[in-house]
Write a structure and sequence with these properties.
By secondary structure, this protein is of the alpha/beta class. It has one domain. 46% of the residues lie in helices and 11% in strands. Strands 1, 2, 3, 4, 5 and 6 form a 6-stranded mixed sheet that branches. Helix 4 crosses helix 5, helix 4 crosses helix 6 and helix 5 packs parallel to helix 8. The chain is globular, with a radius of gyration of 19 Å. The structure holds zinc ion. Zinc ion binds next to strand 2, helix 4 and helix 5.
């Protein structure tokens, strides 16, 4: 594929590092303990537990359902408050690449919305509004709460931003055996897929009798399919070839819940199996039609 001919999106923020997460929390907890004592802390934990369950952070939409520890290339993260993109040549290249892919998704979805070629969930958005891509290192504050790189790239419906720590791309190649530029593009297009879901009212509308995890799987597979629709529509301008397609399918395979959890309990799956993720991406890529991505109309969850 090529991206040099793609317009870099201006909907881009470089938040550098340390703009969120852990240290402060620990200090606050200690202070709280001193203040409330043991019994008070017990009550606080019960209250905090309840808040956690209903906290919007819980609603963030990540690329895969697991957490990774110590991302490679952390040494390349920005100095406190510094620029993530400027932290290393790899980061600079990842930032530029991400902006160009984002630019391509803006062009594609603006056209899809104008054409109205979208599944209808009762909120027929007529025009596409661009999301913002935020790059950061280590940790970041978001409209869905504080987050760290360990969760991988994600979309926050509350602020309409995508969040990516560029060192995740090295993790894909080194740890997930999902190398390649189109594999990286698939990750961005998947998160943009969540933004499209938000705009058309497809996000997390649970089907009665199904668990939260099952709802999550329907959401994630639709985002994979929307990523395929983008790939189909941008195929010519990005010169996407069979090798690129294999990269994206391999990435979808490598981040399937059954592959990441080495079989694990399917009731715990939140993103779908490798086979499902590949199939729904392929469905969007082969058809180029977002209406083919209606995971909510598949009555039998087992047939998803
Ligand atoms: Zn997702």
């Amino acid at each position: 594929m090529r991206v040099d001919n793609q317009r870099p999106s201006d909907n881009f923020q470089d938040r550098g590092s340390g703009s969120g997460g852990g240290g402060v929390g620990a200090m606050a907890l200690f202070g709280l303990f001193r203040l409330l004592g043991f019994r008070g802390m017990l009550i606080a934990i019960v209250v905090l537990g309840a808040i956690y369950l209903f906290n919007p952070f819980h609603l963030r939409e990540a690329i895969f359902g697991s957490v990774v520890s110590n991302l490679p290339g952390q040494t390349q993260s920005a100095g406190a408050g510094g620029s993530t993109c400027a932290a290393s040549p790899e980061n600079q290249q990842a930032c530029d690449f991400s902006r160009r892919i984002l630019g391509s998704t803006e062009t594609v979805w603006a056209q899809q919305f104008r054409d109205g070629r979208l599944p209808n969930y009762g909120a027929p958005a007529t025009s596409y509004t661009d999301p913002t891509l935020v790059v950061y290192s280590r940790s970041v504050d978001t409209g869905c709460g504080a987050a760290t790189s360990a969760v991988g790239p994600f979309y926050c419906p509350q602020d309409g931003n995508l969040y990516v720590d560029p060192s995740f791309y090295q993790l894909m190649a080194q740890r997930l055996q999902a190398p390649g530029d189109f594999a990286q593009a698939y990750v961005i297009a998947h998160e943009v897929g969540h933004h499209v879901q938000k705009l058309i009212g497809a996000m997390d509308h649970p089907i009665s009798g199904e668990s939260q995890n099952q709802t999550s799987v329907r959401t994630e597979l639709q985002a994979d399919c929307f990523a395929g629709v983008w790939g189909h529509t941008a195929q010519a301008s990005l010169a996407i070839d069979d090798a690129d397609l294999r990269e994206a399918l391999n990435a979808a395979h490598q981040i399937g819940d059954d592959t990441l959890s080495r079989g694990g309990d399917p009731r715990e799956y939140t993103h779908g199996t490798s086979e499902q993720r590949m199939r729904w991406f392929r469905r969007g890529f082969d058809s180029g039609d977002a209406r083919q991505c209606d995971t909510w109309s598949v009555a039998d969850y087992g047939q998803l």
